[in-house]
Amino acid sequence: MDMKRKRMVRLGAGVAAAALLWTGFAASAEAATGDGDVRPQIIGGQPAVEGQYPWLVGLGSAGDGTPWERQFCGGSVITETVVITAAHCVADVSDPEDLVVFSGSVDLESDELVETAVADVHVSEDFNDPIESANDWALLLLDEPVDVEPITLDQDPAEFEVLETAGWGNTGASYPTVAEWVEVPFVDDEACADAYPGETDSETMLCAGDLANGGVDSCDGDSGGPLMAPDEDGGQILVGIVSWGHGCAEAGNPGVYAEVADFNDPIEQAIEDWEDGE
After folding, report:
1. Domains of the chain with bracketed CATH
2. What is the pLDDT of residues 174-217, one digit of tens each?
């Protein structure tokens, strides 16, 4: 099985501590592909502009190194102190102090980029249940509020036409400092199940991608980032979280996303528990 969870390790000079912390991520990705191949990330996309996705954040390791070197997953701000990401990005993290969030810019080299410590992590209690990668969501409680526009969570599972996803990663030539975005066609539950027999859970996952032609997709390094749909007011809502797929942008193999509308109650409960000091 050539299943790729869409996280990454990107390490540069001065980040030995991060290397120790995230080596397991790299090993996990190689084991999943069976070939050790590092495939491109946002496929068929283009650079995002400032303000296009104000809620988009990078999740990184604390310590030395630039934000570009330390960023390894994506996320979305849903309240001024809470970020939603993929469970598989943080399930193995034992100390929240090992994590930081980069917000305020789509450019990891921007002077406007803000680095915020993580105070607590809540991983879905149902992660990997009833099947692998089901309920692939987690929440990060930030050490202090961030001054960005949050994105609203989708409340009702629905079918869409075209969705958008965004994140940082290898475009095929290099790892860009500016996040990339791409439009991906919605894939209904039946077609998603046909693409991945026995591997999807329609209650907690949704698919998006060009089944016939491929060419557009999220991929390694985009894990935890947003899948977005237009709302009635011309804005966007969060409908999915980048989770996994077979290969990247391949015809017949859509990207698989955690379906946010299925998690509203436990997400709200986790946030309430933090507010109540639990």
Report:
1. 3-36+55-150+267-274 (2.40.10.10), 152-262 (2.40.10.10)
2. 678 999 998 899 999 999 999 999 999 999 999 999 777 766 66
Q: What is the CA radius of gyration of the chain?
A: 17
Residue 195 in tokens? 């693409």
Say what the pTM is.
0.85
Give 6's strand partners.
none
Q: Which tokens hold the place of 4?
A: 């790729």
* Distance in angstroms between the alpha carbons of the first and the last residue of the chain: 40
Q: How far apart are CA 37 and CA 185, in angstroms?
A: 26
CB 137 within 8 A of CB 27: no
* Separation of alpha carbons 51 and 113, rounded Å: 13
Does the pLDDT at position 250 exceed 60?
yes
- Residue 20 C-alpha from the chain's centroid: 22
Give the separation between CA 149 and CA 103, rounded to whole angstroms: 11
What residues are annotated to the active site? Answer: 88, 136, 223
